[in-house]
Amino acid sequence: MISGTTADGTAELDSGTRGLTRVLVLFSLSGTLDPRGPALGRLVDRFDFGRFALHLKSSEAVLPAPVLVQDVPPGELRLPHGHHGLAPASAELVVLTTPRGDITLVLDCEFAGRTPSDALAAWLADSCFDRDLIRLGDRPLLDVLGQRLAPREPLAFGHNVHQLVFPGGELREELLGADAARQTVVLNEIVYRGRPATTRPPHLSSHGGTLSAHGRGVSVHAGWAEHVENGLTLVAVGVVSALAVLQRTRLAAFEAMRANEQASASSPYEIRSLISRLSAGVNELQLDLAFGVEAYVDSLLIPEMVMETFQSSLRDAFGIRASLDNSARMVERLTSVISARSAALDAELSERDDRRDRTVSVLVAVATLIALPPTLLLAFFGVNATTVNPHRSIFDPRYLPAYLLAWVPFLVLAVIGYVRIIRTGRRPRSLLTPAAPVPAQRPPSGG
Predict the structure, then answer these.
(1) Is residue 26 helix, strand or coil?
(2) Pairwise pLDDT comparison (438 vs 280), residue with the higher score
């Protein structure tokens, strides 16, 4: 059995006995908490992680932090269909938030007396499928949490739930007993409510000592010490939080795609604003994938065989790796679409600037063309020469040669320029129409 060493040098076993059955229900929550709100210190200072604490202290910056830890009188915890004959001995609420602001609610319960597998399976089903109906006293659970946490956005249950069962007493003995057939029946009853589809990760079970099995929503771990139970819970918290981030990222990517397709921007400034918003959204998606998913699905948090094996098996059950790869590709393609739209906008703005510069140049040329002949005529009529009679009008037919001399060269120049512009705008015929195919030559017939 794997073991470690405590601070006083004594051996610390990973296996252990448990008198009461312990059940932890992990709920992903949607909503936003104030990041400036008071924290409750480090995770390793609030819960016993034994020999795993050194690994967690080195990874403190990426670990979820507790923002609420509160004992609840067992009688105040009410499920919609009761406790199915189970006797809650203790209950604790823990709310954890990741550095990216993702929230996970942990409901930690212990049951006294016998915990039959069928009753436990019914309790697990109620706490999962009817979680919106869980109450503390006479109020819904999330209303109580909202009052105590004062979130910026209302809290709501997400789509992801995982329940960890640490059997105690008779249930523990039944699972660790020698009757393999009965053990399989009990596991399938708890994990899949009677359906034989339980996964048993390797290296997490020893004959009569420990046992671990799980499905997508429920895992059973028997014979482990409390610090291992807490470590397994932290692994499950990371996987549940990562799956919630993946689902949120997928929805956000679809929303960004829809915003890009349905945008009705008509001016370059509106398009630039749209690109800016989409780019900011994609940056957040990339941060979520990196620090909200990838950070919790590898073995760096607790590099120990027990934790790595459970994390790998649970991650495969959730299909997180494939979902992460697909989401990453979606975000990359969305980034490519935004980059293409930005490049098209830059090209359009550049073309608009070129058209504006050409228009200004033409206006200057036209203004110069219009201003020069009158200037020459005014200079002609303003000189003190014998050819200018001060008693005649400037529109006198005698001055027609002067008008022709002033205007004809510029009119000729304008006509030449117009013709050249027209010719320059025309494309050669070879560029407009494809070349005619060359007919195939028949080989000479013989004989």
Answers:
(1) strand
(2) 280
